[in-house]
## 1
Amino acid sequence: MAVTATNVYFLMWCLLDQHAVEQKITTNLDFYEFMAITNGALIIISLFSITYKNLGDTILEWGYSNAFRFVVLILLSIFIFALACIFLLAIHFHINASYSVTNAISNTVLSPFFGSLIVFFSLVSILMFFISNLERRSGNMFRLMSQSMGNSLKPKLVRRGFMFIDLNDATSLAEKLSSQHYANLLRDCFRLLNELVDVSPFEIYQYVGDEAVITWEMDISNADLKALQLFADFKAYLEENKEAFKKGYGTQPKFKCSIHSGEVVQSEIGKEVRHLVYHGDVLNTASRLLSQCHDYHTDVIISKGSVSNIKNVAEKYDLNLMVCDNLKGKENSIEAFVVTPKDNAATENTSETITFFLASKVTVGHFINNESKVLFKQ
């Protein structure tokens, strides 16, 4: 976005000033050379984009406000951009054997061309920050664009799958821990879950107390198997960090989940604050199936209708059919499977997935003990 906006800036510069292309920015630096150096600096700063995101998330994790994050990221962006420009200018003037590289760089930096470019880049950086903030709150860029264009204002029928993930013994944990520590426990758990969702074709729909709801489009290939694998990876991720959880909170959190899919109504509600929501019996059924986990002594239940290819799923999981005819608010019975990982599947999960994620993100969550001291951070 910054590259496109800056080149549009140069184009407008040429249109408004027909002689701009013919002008020398400084000695041994014409308009096209200045433009090429600027684009090179933009490519350099784009390489730091992932670092910027991680730094911004870290600043928020440290407890600083979003305003402080905004100031730090904008100033850092401007500094790196200016530094990259100066570095490329030094290379250019050195190659062209300028009489004095230092003087040539100084004249360029103090020229009105460079000053106006920095001001423009600052404005673009601010705009990009607000767009990234909106994207962060919307979930992803596609949802942001869809909401911005008004595509979700009118209710429409869509086919989606839903996974409800709920913390076991939430009431007793909330009583055992203080409100702040309980909130931190949920935050750490869902942060780990988010890392898995980010590299999957799924998305977080919403958080409701100690419950997370994940959704996906039903036309995703092997969505049933991928959903079960996601929860298995989440359990393995929690197991890998069990010592940190026990040290920080005195307990190891465990979750249960239910999966159901079908036709729901997608719409956007709210006026001052808008939300993309889904309505329908599918969500109600998924929620009711979640309550059956305790009765059937399992942590995973998937409705029979959500299993599109039972042969593929059965290769990694044992599926025990059950008929739920006592779901609250449901007149008709629901057929579902109690899911149990096979021994070879559990081994594969641990060896493949945990190695991949925890190789670089083993301490992504911050775990807090009773004295509110940070035990470790990334």
## 2
Amino acid sequence: MAIDTEAIKKHIRGILEALGDDPDREGLKETPDRVAKMYEEVFEGMNYSNQEIAQMFDKTFTDRMEFEQSSQDMVMVKDIEIFSYCEHHIALMYDMKVSVAYIPKGKVIGLSKIARIADMVGKRLQLQERIGSDIAEILQEILGSEDVAVVIEGTHSCMTARGIKKGTATTKTYTLRGAFCEDKFLQMRLES
């Protein structure tokens, strides 16, 4: 599905009119075009399914220690910065830090690919909980390992800038798959 920038321009113009402003005034003339270009960028992930994202970033390496590994070996990338937009208010979810862990089962993925996956998944109308689930699903497909964990902490402008207006509130979500669901030691390592 391609993003329809012409429809976005039309609707942004309508929103400006509905707000009581003149979309033809000097400061707003180019706003529909700018918003359409911004939406193409920040919602790029909406063009792809999880399976397509997995295919895009399916660059793994054979793990030479495959037969020597214990079930406690873990790879973790912490504090990947992303942003997204809440699907309820189209409000910015910001200061989001994603930490991803997995237990290799014969394959490891390039570390930058994990960050690229997190970034692409964030570029959708989302819920923080779904971001974690989507990242886990994509990594499980690429790695062939059920043992994946995604921890996300973020701030939501739908809660900080409007409504209840609690500026210091953050939301933390845990998506645990495979061994991370049951193994308390692995769960503790996620917090270190």
